[in-house]
């Protein structure tokens, strides 16, 4: 199976030829270059399906502690906003993360990462945002880099310092944004720990004006931006992301038509996060029909995090996107391959099976692609190839 320019394309009798870390041919076996194939080590996949390696483009995989107690509160009727106002939510995880060493953070994140790798994930985005001071954010981002050294996977890091206002600066969000702009972001970027910059634009987090200041600073440092947008209300987050040519706008439950149109004009990917929608028992789904109407690229991700989506299965996220948001099988598969790669600015290297791309792909024990979306709690992965290995 290969991604064609217009969507998912199936090559019934296909072959992939790799050299080192790159694909040098992908297409019908009958068109395989004989001069190269004759010298190749042949692996017969015995009729199995091959897809690009999966891309999980929005996670908060590194954190200390858990929030199972808050889950119980939600079951009794407490809202996300109520829990946050009472000192729970992101601030709860902040306390546990600040108390953890870098080694601790790596150790607790590895099992979560291994679960995703076992389902064919070859590229993952990991955010900071549970430290909210320079040392803790550095520790989180360093732990993400260490995960990439310990496992065969590409890790894209996002600096999410604008996740919440830390307790020591409560009520002074503007001053905290100043600190992000003048101290934290420049230092972490200088150390090579930041691939992109993210923010949480909501009434319980940061205003559009505050996020715009942060994004201007990120752009000045040569960094691309992404945004948690319109999850709990419509503050114009999608339009804000588009104005700053963001790689992605994520969540989008309350995005309106103007937001969808702006995303299309900017080429910003809409990342849907059905795990959070399910876990929070939300009632307003993202405007999928508007996204389709304006031809916005749609990605799907786990949003793996301790408070609102403790999910470490991208296959289950695809199933949730289909059942809750009515995405098609093709949209789910593109959403975890080609469009997810675009959401990380990595579409030149991953997300499709074609010559020149990294040799990242997954081999599946399935009879049809729909099985990857249809099954729940079942992993049909046969083999995972990362950079030709």
Describe the fold and architecture.
The chain has helices spanning 34-37, 68-75, 80-85, 90-98, 102-117, 134-150, 173-190, 208-220, 237-243, 257-266, 274-279, 288-293, 314-325, 329-335, 338-343, 370-374; strands at 2-4, 7-9, 14-19, 22-28, 49-52, 54-56, 121-127, 154-162, 196-201, 224-229, 248-251, 269-272, 298-300, 361-364, 381-385. α7 runs parallel beside α8 (208-220), α9 packs parallel to α10 and α13 packs across α14. The chain has 16 helices and 15 strands. Helix content is 39%, strand content 19%. The longest helix is centred in the middle third of the chain and has 18 residues, at 173-190. With 389 residues, the protein is α/β, with parallel strands linked by helices. The protein is globular. The strands form four sheets. An eight-stranded parallel sheet has the order 6-7-8-9-10-11-12-13. Residues 1-6 have low confidence and may be disordered.
List keywords for this structure.
globular; 389 residues; three-stranded antiparallel β-sheet
């Amino acid at each position: 199976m290969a991604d064609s320019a217009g969507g998912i394309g199936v090559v019934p009798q296909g072959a992939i030829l790799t050299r080192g870390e790159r694909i040098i041919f992908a297409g019908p076996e009958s068109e395989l270059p004989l001069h190269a194939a004759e010298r190749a080590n042949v692996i017969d996949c015995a009729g199995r399906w091959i897809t690009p390696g999966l891309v999980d483009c929005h996670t908060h995989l590194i954190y200390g502690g858990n929030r199972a107690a808050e889950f119980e509160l939600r079951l009794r009727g407490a809202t996300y906003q109520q829990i946050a106002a009472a000192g729970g939510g992101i601030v709860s995880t902040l306390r546990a993360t600040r108390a953890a060493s870098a080694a601790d953070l790596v150790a607790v994140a590895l099992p979560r990462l291994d679960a995703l790798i076992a389902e064919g994930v070859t590229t993952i985005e990991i955010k900071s945002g549970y430290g909210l001071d320079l040392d803790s954010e550095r520790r989180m981002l360093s732990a993400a880099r260490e995960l990439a050294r310990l496992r065969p996977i590409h890790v894209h890091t996002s600096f999410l310092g604008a996740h919440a206002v830390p307790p020591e600066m409560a009520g002074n969000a503007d001053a905290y944004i100043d600190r992000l702009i003048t101290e934290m972001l420049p230092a972490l970027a200088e150390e090579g720990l930041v691939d992109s910059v993210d923010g949480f634009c909501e009434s319980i987090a940061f205003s559009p004006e505050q996020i715009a200041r942060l994004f201007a600073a990120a752009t000045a440092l040569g960094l691309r931006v992404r945004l948690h947008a319109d999850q709990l209300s419509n503050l114009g987050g999608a339009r804000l992301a588009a104005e700053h040519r963001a790689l992605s706008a994520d969540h989008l439950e309350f995005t309106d038509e103007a937001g969808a149109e702006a995303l299309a004009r900017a080429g910003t990917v809409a990342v849907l996060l059905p795990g959070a929608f399910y876990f929070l028992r939300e009632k307003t789904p993202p405007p999928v029909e508007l996204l389709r109407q304006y031809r916005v690229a749609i990605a799907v991700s786990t949003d793996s995090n301790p408070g609102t989506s403790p999910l470490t299965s991208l296959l289950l996220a695809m199933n949730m996107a289909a059942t809750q948001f009515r995405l098609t099988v093709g949209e789910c598969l593109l959403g975890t391959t080609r469009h997810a790669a675009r959401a990380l600015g990595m579409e030149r290297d991953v997300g499709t099976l074609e010559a020149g791309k990294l040799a990242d792909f997954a081999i599946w024990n399935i009879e049809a692609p729909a099985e990857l979306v249809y099954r729940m709690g079942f992993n049909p992965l046969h083999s995972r190839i990362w950079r030709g290995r």
